Amino acid sequence: MVATKVQKKKGKRKVKKQRRSFFRRIPSYLLWSLIAVVAAIYIFSFYKMFVSPYSFRWKAMYGDEVYPAGTVRGIDISHYQEEIDWDLLRNATLKDAPLMFIFVKATEGTNLLDENFIQNFYYARQSAIMRGAYHYFKPQSSVEQQARFFCRHVILEDEDLPPVLDVEEDGGLSKPQLQKAVLEWLKIVETHYGVKPILYCSYSYRRDILTAKEFDDYPLWIANYYVDKLAYKGSWKFWQHTDYGRISGIKGHVDVNLFNGTREQLKNMSIGNNRKADFEED
Fold this sequence. Notes:
By secondary structure, this protein is an alpha/beta fold. It folds into 2 domains: 2-53, no CATH class; 70-281, TIM Barrel. It has helices at 2-25, 28-51, 55-61, 86-89, 117-126, 143-153, 175-193, 203-208, 263-268, 271-281, and strands at 73-77, 93-94, 97-108, 112-113, 130-136, 164-166, 198-202, 220-223, 238-245, 254-259. It has an 8-stranded mixed β-barrel, surrounded by 4 helices.
């Protein structure tokens, strides 16, 4: 037994010596080159998996927002922005472009009126910034009650943007049920205001759920964050490209949007011009 243990120890020493001699035989420059290649592969893999997908968000979080090309920019606000300094906001810029439009949260579900809607909507008008109002859709609640609730609280005037439906949840509904519910709200509100509402949703929601051709008839406001190019290939009017924007007059972060067109085209979307265009087409 003793001899066997000694033999085993000698055998282990030989293996270790062989390993050492093997690495000693490799030229140092080649060994370091091999280490460098392995390190580079590791760093590249780490960047592709963990850094690249979130780089735009990290830049935005630390004050270096990445804005897509364009000059007609706007924001959307709610009570989450708390008290706004409208004297600063009316003269504020986004990436060296003036603030052209503001979407204001008005209602949610069947009975929730945003606590800052009235003052935000009023001051947007007083600040000569094109304004719009949106409803946050709750699929599990009565569609008709939601539509009537929005119409009752939101008075849109000429030069205002069309009403907006913000769709983000599924409420446990199936795809056909969701499509039917969203279309019902859009049609009720369109009848009330005489213009086609704007439809807001994420890129994935539009791609996977709101796929019916009927939705192509409504101006699209699409959310697709932290990318230098919009993934959606269809027609769109507004692109919400970040929720980490900053602007004078608002203390925290704010959603920033780009209009797909010129200032004149944005004005042509307003209530008065929109109705006039529909009349001329008829």
